[in-house]
Amino acid sequence: xxxxxxxxxxxxxxxxxxxxxxxxxxxxxxxxxxxxxxxxxxxxxxxxxxxxxxxxxxxxxxxxxxxxxxxxxxxxxxxxxxxxxxxxxxxxxxxxxxxxxxxxxxxxxxxxxxxxxxxxxxxxxxxxxxxxxxxxxxxxxxxxxxxxxxxxxxxxxxxxxxxxxxxxxxxxxxxxxxxxxxxxxxxxxxxxxxxxxxxxxxxxxxxxxxxxxxxxxxxxxxxxxxxxxxxxxxxxxxxxxxxxxxxxxxxxxxxxxxxxxxxxxxxxxxxxxxxxxxxxxxxxxxxxxxxxxxxxxxxxxxxxxxxxxxxxxxxxxxxxxxxxxxxxxxxxxxxxxxxxxxxxxxxxxxxxxxxxxxxxxxxxxxxxxxxxxxxxxxxxxxxxxxxxxxxxxxxxxxxxxxxxxxxx
Amino acid sequence: xxxxxxxxxxxxxxxxxxxxxxxxxxxxxxxxxxxxxxxxxxxxxxxxxxxxxxxxxxxxxxxxxxxxxxxxxxxxxxxxxxxxxxxxxxxxxxxxxxxxxxxxxxxxxxxx
Lengths: 408, 112
Fold this sequence. Notes:
The complex is a heterodimer. Chain A is mainly alpha-helical.
């Protein structure tokens, strides 16, 4: 049995590494889809999220999210990490799939992701300090409490709510905060002028493309690791459904946006892939390949409509984070009640209840954080700073000093 | 000596370059520029249509002796022409002096 544990644990650590790599994917995607003058600011935020996120998850997040026996709503098992011991050495009976340490690190890599989603949506205009405070509170407290409701064995878990790898627990949690943040923050200067919707084309499509391919690779770990062991049948099925949904999401989004706008838009193609990935995440181990393709393809169409909807209601989301992570996250969560092994009316209603509970805690939590900051220290940079770029004002440097010809 | 500056379409650059070589204009400088003009370019980005007057062109700077002026300009007018709005402009100005750094030749000799 110890050989099996070793294999399971090695797979889980590989997945941990893959999820870690997703942070590079997010960073590249975000800077690719925004303007050159804010590149360093976005990189700074992303690096802050992964470093601070891990420390916070070690300090309190892990024990808030997995408190052991608790009342189902909120529990806390104490500060810091303390490995369970058996006969003075690490208790290998902790779990059949992984050790205590692997458990912490794998979950820790997930935790920071929720804040990274927000980073893209608020890009190019949020104050760095305010964003960092938000990250500490959201990743440190809200994300783990919300997570404990399902993955920690809380009340939604007992109710039968299903979220395999985090369409809701990770992606919607980030997506709700992104939505609240861009609403309180307002649009970038010039995005909505004289009643017309403006466009700020991203400055680096190779980066955006690399970011999405890296995220897709990372998803092998995000979903593959959420099997929580190296179970041959489930891990391989999960990787198949994950990849098929990604491919279907991309193709559907590309075809739909091309028909709609008569333009081959790489950014929609890329967002479609992510939409498919987010969509399949809630039920990646419960779907057949056909289900996965359908879920992904519908997510791809949702992305195109979602991006247009966000523009239509005068919210400014430079990278499409709300459409990808929130709308497709909700879609994926509900899809568990429509497709696959768990499909059924009761399951669908349970999924709906789960989505509503997460909407409540995330909207209230992120609203409180952002609103209090908005009326006290402020959340938005000055118009001058926004126009000239956050890089030069917040960080005192250019992202590409040798290529300064066409800054805008 | 004259300096001929021409702003032309990138799509006509290769043809223009060959035509200039053919009449004996063997060296000149060029760089890519962005400007605004009468032409508007329509784009779609993430479902949002927008048009911009920012236009990408290539800027040529050619210094020739007076005797070369006419045929150089004629060549440019012919080879950079498409007949659509946005074909570009040509400016001619006088040059006081020219030197070749290696040989220290000056005037027309330095342009050969």
